[in-house]
């Protein structure tokens, strides 16, 4: 039985990366000791740091940077286009050249709960925590705990916990 892994030749994998079955990786970078769960897709020009855990059924699109020591729960979706359309004004199907990729950054030590959607042009701050099922529409400050639709700051992680 095959492992059903689709990994393009231009993928850069760090040392001791753990890859589950049923994944699609193309044109991305994955740092040392990162673990990628099943049914994950990571697109070109996405960068994943060291010692990250990416849980099953997660989609990381072009333009996303995930720094070191980040946890991403099950079924997380990153969006990289603020105005997605199937066709141009003249009715032609859009191609890659018609899209403007907008960057998204998840800073080191952040945790993203299961079922979260993160819109484009957003930064999730260092050590921040995003609650399950949230819709992140704007930047999340460092050390913040956010949740909801849209996600809002509910409190901050106490300094003694961060040590």
Can you identify the CATH superfamily? Hexapeptide repeat proteins
- Placed side by side, the strands forming the largest sheet appear as 3-6-9-12-15-18-20-21
Number of domains: 1
Report the order of strands and helices.
Answer: EEEEEEEEEEEEEEEEEEEEEH
Q: Specify the CATH class.
A: Mainly Beta
Distance between the termini: 46 Å
Tell me, briefly, the overall form.
globular
| Whole-angstrom Rg | 16 Å
Helix and strand composition category: mainly beta
Task: State the low-pLDDT regions, or none.
Answer: none
Portion in strands: 25-35%
Quick one: biggest sheet?
A: 8 strands, mixed
Summarize model confidence as the mean pLDDT: 95
Counted by DSSP, the helix tally is: 1
Summarize the structure.
With 163 residues, the chain is mainly β. It contains one helix and 21 strands. The mean pLDDT is 95.
Question: What is this structure's SSE topology?
Answer:
Layout: E1 5-7, E2 12-13, E3 18-19, E4 23-25, E5 29-30, E6 35-36, E7 41-42, E8 47-48, E9 53-54, E10 59-60, E11 64-66, E12 71-72, E13 77-78, E14 104-106, E15 111-112, E16 117-118, E17 123-124, E18 129-130, E19 135-136, E20 144-147, E21 152-156, H1 159-162
Description of the structure:
- The termini are far apart.
- The chain is built from one helix and 21 strands.
- The strands form four sheets. The chain has an eight-stranded mixed beta sheet, with no helix packed on it.
- The protein has one domain (5-161): UDP N-Acetylglucosamine Acyltransferase, domain 1 (3 Solenoid), CATH 2.160.10.10.
- The chain has one helix at residues 159-162, and strands spanning 5-7, 12-13, 18-19, 23-25, 29-30, 35-36, 41-42, 47-48, 53-54, 59-60, 64-66, 71-72, 77-78, 104-106, 111-112, 117-118, 123-124, 129-130, 135-136, 144-147, 152-156.
- The protein has 163 residues and is mainly β.
